[in-house]
Amino acid sequence: MTIISVLPLLLYAAATAAYWAHFATHDKRTGRTATALLGAAVLAHTFLIGMQTVQGGYAPLVGTTAAVSAFVWLLGLAYLYVELTTDERAMGAFVGVLLSLLMILPALNPQTEARPPLLRSPLFTIHVMSMLFAYASFALAFVLGITYVLLFKEIKAKHLGFFYTRLPSLQVLDKMNGRAVVVGWLFLTCGLLVGGIWATQLGGSADPRAQAMGLADPKILFALVSWGTYSFALFARRAIGWSGRRAAWLSAIAFVIVLLNFVPIGYFLTRSHNF
Amino acid sequence: MRLFAVGISHRTAPVELRECVDFTRRGLESALSALAERKVTREAVVLSTCNRAEIYASAESEAAADSCSRFISEFNEVSWDEVAPHVIVYRGPQAADHLFRVAAGLDSLVVGEPQILGQVKDAYAMANGLKSTGALTNRLFTSAFSVGKRVRSETGLGEGAVSVSFAAIALAKKIFGAFTNLNVLILGAGEMAKLTGVHLKAQAVNQLTIASRTFETADAMAHDLGGVAVAWSAVGEALANADIVVTATGARDPVLTRGRVEDAMRRRRGRPLFIIDIAVPRDVEPEVGSLDQVFLYNIDDLQSIVKENLTRRSSEVERAESIVREEVTRFTTWMQSREVLPTVIALRERFEAIRVAELKRLEPKMSSLTPEARARVDEITHLLVEKLLLSPTEQLKSTGDESLAVTYADALNRLFGLTAASRREPEPGE
């Protein structure tokens, strides 16, 4: 474990602590510190990924650990983008926790894995990057949904307190949630399509993993289930007016499916995606 | 130069007197120029709001404060006997302390209200425009502005609505974000309904709809507020289109039943509905509050929010006070160093003049010395003067007590005959 591979985790954790301090105290300087720390974390993480790319000669996307690392990096970037465009820092506390927890995996296991011949295709990179972009968007939607529910409960119960003074309005949270789901769904659809095309090209490969590409594999099955859930969320919002609390819950549940698929299934159950 | 503040405020004078003592009635300009004509103050700023009428000024004489107090009564044509018991005079650091508390909102009727800082700024800008400010008031008011700013950003003194209408508006903002696309429905056309309508109208809502059992009263109110009136029978339709509903009818039985709201919600496709029930007895069945996407608040709920906010504000007072104390100390230190600075300079000039004069007097006796030896004499005398002055200069500058610093400066002025020099006014920023 070298300092370069642990530094991003430390910075993410420090940024999270600062975001929580900002959340609790409402102090502007703490907020700016939190943003700066997160920026530094993403920068250090960029350096780490860049270094691995140079060393290996290919983007470090092989294996769940590397994918988790790339996902954290993308989510950090996406969150920073949202924060800078909306000037809204309250969500950082929640996103930070997700970033820090997931970053533990790559920090514990910093070695990049060798790229098997199976993955030497540009379609592989597009597939993985699209999926990770989608997951990052869904993670933001998840955090927005959870904060929506927390604020909703406070206003409904007439106990205006902690979240009431710190979060943006329900309407804003709902709108941002809706947008994040749309962006995520687009990338997920693209990722699945590219993945499907690529899998058909592998038809002749003798690799057992290529043989396992099919609906029976839990990773592929769950990816389709999450696609179905998000498609329903989009449909429900537009056609039957499921916005607000229902949309928030739906995006939270759907992200739990995504996360289950991403980490435990990715590590232990899949036979097609165990690179 | 002495800094002082005189005036009356809601803490010292009843409203009847405050109504009579109002510098804005005849214009702040005329008040400032009338004060300048008296030639008792060097600098003056007049602050006049509905809760206070105060003069912040600097002058040479101790009696200027009394003269300004009298000015308050004379300018406003109120007898001195009426005003005198209510006037408060603050001198030196106390004046700064008072102004800083005012700017922070600590001295306001509703603690932490935000308007006062703007009013202080306007008062200063007016005086500055008429050239009635100077080094002392400039520094005093700039410090006051930064106190106001710091209290606002570093404490929660101004946070949370402290009136029922603003609590309702703040809630609506938390639910809907912006008001521009919102439709408001008001049920009832009484005083309370109208007052709330005025507040909501000020938020630039999209549409204001008013319904009342008698269409004419609703129509009249709609006319006053710039809204539309609808017939009582069309309330169901209006309910489906509204985002915020205010109920303030005098009805004995609930006007909005669960069934009625449920019906409207079905047509709203999940858009949230915020119902504010300010009627007593209540206009809305309590069960309505349990419907999904419906937020129901009655007058008691809003009042308890206000109460909580007031408690929270009062818990922030101590933090605001400590910012005020900090800034008062800083200002006082500046004021003192400014008092003694001319004396320090004059004292040094005096010693240097003596040294140079003595060297000149001894010139014939030193003509036999080598240039090196003469330079040495020059150096020794210079060091002597420096060493003699070191301790008194430091003592003078570091005195914490203002009156003691003035006494020291006075004594030095007299002992060394420095009076002429010490009158020199330091420039702003010196």
Verbal overview:
The complex is a heterodimer of chains A (275) and B (430). Chain A has 275 residues and is an all-alpha fold. In chain A, 79% of the residues lie in helices and 0% in strands. The model of chain A has no long low-confidence stretch (mean pLDDT 84). Chain B has 430 residues and is of the alpha/beta class. Chain B is 57% helix and 13% strand. Chain B contains 17 helices and ten strands. The C terminus of chain B is likely disordered. Chains A and B meet through helix 5, helix 7 and helix 10 of A and helix 8 and helix 13 of B.
| Count of helical stretches of chain B | 17
How much is the radius of gyration of chain A in Å? 19 Å
Provide the β-strand percentage band of chain B: 5-15%
Largest β-sheet summary of chain A = none
What's the N-to-C terminus distance of chain A? 21 Å
Please state the average pLDDT score of chain B: 88
Low-confidence stretches of chain B: 420-430
Bin the strand percentage of chain A.
Answer: under 5%
Strand pairing plus helix content of chain B: what structural class? alpha/beta
What best-fitting shape of chain A do the alpha-carbon axes yield?
Answer: globular
State the order of secondary-structure elements of chain B, H for helix, E for strand. EHHEEHHEHHHHEHEHEHEHEEHHHHH
Shape, principal axes of CA atoms of chain B? elongated
Mean pLDDT of chain A: 84
Q: Helix content range of the residues of chain B, please?
A: 55-70%
- Percent of residues in helices of chain A comes to over 70%
Largest sheet of chain B: 6 strands, parallel
Largest interface (CB < 8 Å): A-B, 22 and 26 residues
Topology of helices and strands:
The complex is a heterodimer of chains A (275) and B (430).
Chain A: H1 3-25, H2 28-56, H3 64-86, H4 92-108, H5 122-157, H6 162-166, H7 170-201, H8 208-211, H9 218-239, H10 244-269
Helix pairs in contact in A: 1-2, 1-4, 2-3, 3-4, 3-5, 5-7, 5-10, 7-9, 7-10, 9-10
Chain B: E1 2-9, H1 15-20, H2 28-37, E2 43-49, E3 52-59, H3 64-75, H4 80-83, E4 88-91, H5 93-104, H6 115-129, H7 135-154, H8 164-176, E5 183-187, H9 191-201, E6 207-211, H10 215-225, E7 228-230, H11 235-241, E8 244-247, H12 258-268, E9 273-277, E10 294-298, H13 299-361, H14 363-366, H15 371-398, H16 402-415, H17 419-422
Parallel strand pairs in B: 5-6, 5-8, 6-7, 8-9, 9-10
Antiparallel strand pairs in B: 1-3, 1-4, 2-3
